[in-house]
Amino acid sequence: MRRYLLPEYIVERDDLKCTRCKICVEQCTYGVHNYNAIKNMIESRSELCVDCLRCVLFCPVNAITVRRNPNVYKENYHWTYEFITSIKRQADTGSALLSGMGCDKQNLTYWDKLLLNACQVTNPPIDPIREPIEIRTYLGGKPKMLEFEFNDEDITLGTKLGPCLCAETPILFAAMSYGALNLNVHEALARAAVDCGTYFNCGEGGLHPSLYKYSDHTIVQVASGRFGVDLKYLSVGAAIEIKIGQGAKPGIGGHLPGEKVSDDIAMVRMIPAGTDAISPAPHHDIYSIEDLRQLIYALKETVEYTKPVAVKIAAVHNSAAIASGIVRAGADIIVLDGVRGATGAAPKAIRDNVGIPIELAVASVDQRLRDEGVRDEVSLIASGGIRSSADVVKAVALGADAVYIGTAALIAMGCTLCQKCYTGKCPWGIATTDPEISKRLNPEDAYKRVVNLVKAWSIEIKEMLGAMGMDAIESLRGNREQLRGVGLTDRELEILGVKMAGE
Amino acid sequence: MYARREHAGSYSDDKILGSCALFGMMNLTCERFSSKEPVHAISCMRERGNGLGGGFAIYGIYPDLADLYAFHVMYMDPLSRRRAEKNLMRDFRILLSEEIPTKESNEFLDPPTFWRYFLEPKPSKLRDENVSSDEYVVRRVMGINTGVRGAYVISSGKDMGVFKGIGFPEDIADFFRLNEYRGYMWICHARFPTNTPGWWGGAHPFSILDWSVAHNGELSSYGVNRRYLEMEGYGCAMKTDTEVLAYALDLLARRHNIPIELIAKVFAPPYWEEIDAMKPKERLTFAALRRVYGSLMMNGPFSIIAARHGEMIGLTDRKKLRPLIGGMRGDFLYISSEESAIRSISPSLDKVVRPYGGEIIVGRLRDLRVMETPTLVGRVYA
Ligand code: SF4
Ligand code: SF4
User: Fold this and answer.
1) C-alpha distances in angstroms, B137 versus B71, B121, B122, B134, B357?
2) How many Å apart are CA A175 and CA B209, to the nearest integer?
3) pLDDT at residue B195, rounded to an integer
4) CA distance A237 to A219
5) Which of A89-103, A153-167, B38-52, B317-331 has the lowest mean pLDDT?
């Protein structure tokens, strides 16, 4: 059947500049560039290009340009390019469309409509270069109050606090599994977590034995497939996260095709090599909140109450009620993953249409937990599409304790958001387990880039806190007085719990 | 309601100076004294106020009725009094009620009326609710302040009372005829409001039960302090950040039974760096305080003088962005925004205390020691 798809991108080469070094031919994992020896020319098959920009950045003479195909369908606000292309692709293949990374739709980002406060005159801003500003963040369950024992002149703390995570910055690395990513990426994230004094979440594919040495800074995940879960795995991490859902595909499980399950991945996931690794949509032992409570306590028992247990859910319509149930079920940390949350592979229809923006979810969960008087007994992590230090600050002001970043960390390593992670051919060596392509990601280099990113954001967070006249992040947590909205309806402002700018 | 415009000075520039004056004076042997010295001292710092708020909390003023809760209630209109008194009569046995005597004066445009009630909770109601009488009183105060329009309980402790309003402190003292009262501890405030409208209820000190707080500064953390206290049942009705200090003191001291030295460490905690360097036992305590009560950290510039029966404290934020100084002479402890105010009534002092940021000055009855460096957990006086 002839394909009726327009090439999305046009790859152009300045032939006068091109030295025939063939670097682009090697670098493109999609086979766009080919050397024609007879013509002594490099030819490019534009229709295969995914706009990952690998060749563009690697061409030593800057001879390559990738741009959007100027041929477009007749302009139509209803039948956009995306819908026409999707229909044609499905007519060709008869299958559900897959996509990688997070939802890329307009109008779901509230961060850009929230503005931060700063001190003028009546209280002095604080200069982070000269004065300490603290962003250390503890995550875990807490008692409602402390009791002290008084003995003559002596005071002793009588309350024992539960286990917790102590992050030197409110930024943690989100769950991304071994299998979706390769070991180099995991190693880079783990080392960055150690360096930044924060935590990396190994995701649902188990933890490679070579990374156990970083396990003080590792959150181990237990998902519906139970891959790689055994006593050692649970005991080695700093915290355990039960994954109920993820923002990119709420209500959907995962599927790592057999061809990607190499010997090593099979060993870590504890499944036979070459078999499909399927995470069911639900945990088949959790059909209700009571069941979740059992799993939380089964895990706590297993590690003898030495580690906090987190529960991660996708932000959906009734997140607030679910979150309150999760607190009562005994979780120490709640992770909310918004509609922008990313993934290696998800059905496009789900990715783009299911779930709610993280900003609204954090606001309503924080408020609900306060209404029930339990907000300070748990920690709240916001996740899904956090793009900058300002997003982090706004998330904390809305009510989160900390954030997870995934996509941002991958972008720091080289990812260009081409959204083709599901192909397994990531030209940047990130979302691939192909041993050859994986070599493109140097863990040493990638780790440094991620550390730099977190350090840079942490400095900016301190700058913003200082400008608001605060020297500790706990004073920002849930402090919506420091936020104002622009371009929002009354109802939106009400749900976010913020005033309109100018009020 | 605006008063004494001429004091603002028609030639003064418009610059908003975020400053207020605090002054506290306590006789450590519980000897009661008149308004003369405290009023003189606070009026010495006129520069720091702007006539939009002044007030006093006086302890030991109702010795004959010391077993009863003394409510000072501000009424914006006659209707509000009828509504509030309905509540009071329903919930309390009122043993005495009277209008607080004030001086006829044309200094004030249309001041609210002030009443005081000496009361005790109705035993049957108390039984029904099954709470301590203090808790009962706090709930009823919240009920009136957030639920009865135009009525505000400005103090509710025993054998103490708050007198405050719009004006310079000396005018307020005049208005309430404070020269007729004697107390063993006086907390005084002159206000320069910036963030919140100058209104009678917004003047300091703020008070709940026998806690009273006078505050100079602005809390950037107000948003989270308020949301935390709301979670604990404290409704913030007074449109100002100082209110949260009074409620936080009540919550921590009364309901959570935390000693004042440690409460100071909740409001102005040591840096994590300092906590990390402490001995294990202290580290555990201070880390726990910050983790559990982080939402009550008072962030932003502040100095406060707070008091309850038998105890007066002074505290600044941990960066000391507002002034505070303490002094002692004989049985008297003074805490003030400026040393000059203390010297104006006691030119010579036995001891001057200049606390660092986050350090607390504590004065207790019959306890002449003044705590200067309470970083040690082990030093709390009974
Ligand atoms: S897919 Fe990437 S590497 Fe290949 S031609 Fe396109 S931009 Fe270049
Ligand atoms: S991880 Fe790789 S495949 Fe996925 S979006 Fe980024 S560059 Fe593309």
Assistant:
1) 10, 7, 11, 5, 34
2) 50
3) 55
4) 5
5) B38-52
Report the C-alpha gap between A78 and B154 in whole angstroms: 62
Amino acid present at B196:
T
Higher-pLDDT residue of A307 and B203 is A307
pTM: predicted TM-score of the whole model, two decimal places: 0.91
CA distance A292 to A43: 56
Q: How far apart are CA A221 and CA A312, in angstroms?
A: 10
Ligand 2 center to A101 CA (angstroms):
8
What pLDDT sits at residue B15? 30
- Inform me whether the C-beta atom of residue B319 falls under 8 Å from chain A C-beta atoms: yes
Contact state of A121 with B16 under an 8 Å Cβ cutoff: yes
Cβ–Cβ < 8 Å for A415, A428: yes
Mean pLDDT by 10 residues, chain B (382 residues): 32 43 92 93 81 88 94 94 95 95 79 94 93 94 92 94 91 93 94 66 88 90 93 79 89 92 94 94 94 95 92 92 92 93 93 89 69 35 29
pLDDT, tens digit, 9 for 90 and up, residues A44-72:
999 999 999 999 999 999 999 999 999 98
So what's the pLDDT on residue A3? 85
Distance CA B163, CA B178 (A): 9
Q: Which residue of A has its CA nearest to B285?
A: A157
Asked if B32 and B60 count as a contact pair (C-beta separation under 8 A), the reply is: yes
Ligand 1 centroid – CA B282 distance (Å)? 59
Instruction: Kindly report the nearest CA distance between residue B110 and chain A, in angstroms.
Output: 29
pLDDT of A2 reads 85
> What are the distances in angstroms from CA A6 to CA A10, A41, B48?
10, 24, 73
Per-residue pLDDT of A1-10, as tens digits, reads 888 999 999 9
**What was the pLDDT predicted at A306?**
97
Mutation to test the A interface, candidates B17, B231, B381, most A Cβ within 10 Å = B231
Please choose, from the candidates B185, B156, B188, the residue with its C-alpha nearest in 3D space to the C-alpha of residue B72. Answer: B156
Higher pLDDT pick, A150 / A103: A103
Measured between alpha carbons, how far apart are the two ends of chain A, in Å? 62
| Percentage of residues of chain A with pLDDT beyond 90 | 94
Inter-chain residue contact B377 with A470, CB threshold 8 Å = no
The 10s digit of each residue's pLDDT in A342-358 is 999 999 999 999 999 99
C-alpha–C-alpha distance, residues B173 and B177, integer Å: 6
B16 in contact with A, Cβ within 8 Å: yes
In chain A, which among 343-382 make CB contacts under 8 A with chain B?
A: 370, 373, 375-376
DSSP line for A280-339: -SS-TT-SSHHHHHHHHHHHHHHTTT-S-EEEEEE--TTHHHHHHHHHHTT-SEEEEE-T
Question: What are A295's two structure tokens?
Answer: 């799993």
Please say whether the beta carbons of A183 and A193 come within 8 A: no
What tens digit of pLDDT does each residue of A168-179 get?
Answer: 999 999 999 999
**Residues B65 and B96: beta-carbon distance below 8 Å:** yes
